[in-house]
Design a protein that fits this description.
It is built from 10 helices and 8 strands. By secondary structure, the protein is α/β, with parallel strands linked by helices. It has one domain: Rossmann fold (3-Layer(aba) Sandwich), CATH 3.40.50. Strand 3, helix 1 and strand 4 form a beta-alpha-beta unit. The chain is globular and about 45 Å long.
Length: about 280
């Protein structure tokens, strides 16, 4: 099922729900640039574990119009609105890449509603004390996020300049694409077809204050990260593991940005246990 929600204070979100009253709901936060359709490669495992997916297009993607000046912390407002509309009181959150970052913010700002948090290959806050935020990041990522730090005009110019992003995918990443995670093309293509607005606003949100601190998260947190990731270096997860009070870090030494999602089924099993 797909629905459109009007947000408190204005704005609109396009949301998704696989249904199943009585099932454990997991709110999926998508990466950059993606639309928010929930992760099809994990549907079979979710059915086995009695999990219901809910998700949404972040503003600027798919059916959700842009919201100027949005922050990472705004994800908590969107999550609460979706859960309220569907009559869901408590839920887990999970995200990949920038979606992991938004999942962490949701957990931090909705402590009474979020029962477990999974961040796969997610970024740490830009003001993370003691973390060399840029170390180990590929040149393309540094260029894209540096433009975001300069502000909206510079970032929009960068995204329309024709510069190609080199993800520095590894053999493990390409193997993941071949083993089911080619699904990413189903969510990246429509996001890019809708223009650069969502990507611009995402990147600016990543490099400006989040409006929350991961140390605020009271729920159990699972951090999954590939040791060979050049999009988001694994040092980000290592920092988050020290910052989040109830965090578990699963570092995959030969994993990278896409292949880390092959641990997705194990992450769902972890959520099932953590939320019980």
């Amino acid at each position: 099922m797909e629905i459109d929600l009007t947000l408190p204070g204005g704005g609109r979100l396009h949301a998704y729900d696989t249904g199943g009253d009585g099932r454990l709901a997991i709110l999926w936060h998508h990466g950059t640039p993606n639309i928010g359709a929930p992760p099809k490669p994990l549907f079979a495992a979710a059915d086995r574990l009695g999990i219901r997916w809910i998700s949404y297009d972040r503003p600027g993607y798919g059916g959700s119009p842009r919201i100027p000046g949005r922050t990472v912390g705004d994800a908590a407002t969107w999550a609460a609105a979706i859960a309220d509309a569907l009559g869901i009181e408590r839920f887990a959150v999970m995200g990949h890449s920038g979606g992991g970052t938004h999942a962490l913010a949701t957990g931090a700002l909705l402590p009474d509603r979020v029962v477990a948090v999974v961040s796969a290959a997610g970024l740490a806050p830009p003001d993370a004390e003691g973390l060399d935020w840029w170390a180990g990041m590929g040149d393309s990522g540094i260029a894209a996020l540096s433009a975001a730090k300069e502000g909206l005009v510079a970032k929009e110019a960068f995204e329309t300049s024709g510069t190609e992003y080199d993800h520095q995918f590894t053999p493990a990443d390409f193997a993941a694409f071949e083993s089911g995670w080619s699904w990413f093309s189903e969510v990246v293509g429509p996001a890019e077809a809708g223009g650069p607005g969502g990507h611009v606003d995402d990147d600016i949100a990543y490099v400006t204050p989040w409006g929350c601190d991961p140390a605020q998260i009271t729920a159990p947190v699972l951090l999954i990260h590939g040791g060979l990731d050049k999009v988001v270096p694994s040092t980000h997860a290592e920092w988050l593991a020290k910052r989040c009070p109830r965090a578990e870090l699963r570092l995959v030494p030969d994993g990278a940005h896409i292949s880390v999602m092959t641990s997705g089924e194990a992450a769902l099993e972890w959520i099932r246990t953590a939320a019980s």
